[in-house]
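Q&A log
Question type: sequence-to-structure
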Amino acid sequence: HLKSTISGFLGRPYVWGTSGMKSFDCSGFVWRVWADNGVPIKRTTARKLYMSLPKTYGKDDYTFGNLVFFDNLKHVGIVNSRTDFYHAQTS
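Response status: OK
Response body:
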């Protein structure tokens, strides 16, 4: 169900401070995907998500559904595989 939720949101425009249904920022995208799958996480910034969630290590880092953080913890996405991820992007 997670992949179908993500697929339904692909291509929606990036708009800072939004969490769907027509547009998202990065943390809004993550929040919406998880909320629509019955997993309550706080709607917050990428940095605060990073600080509040358990860390992964080694091979578990690239497990589908994990969150990936970058750009000095200013951006977050959802891991698809070792080589790609889903996120709301500005360009």
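Response note: The chain is about 25% helix and 15% strand.
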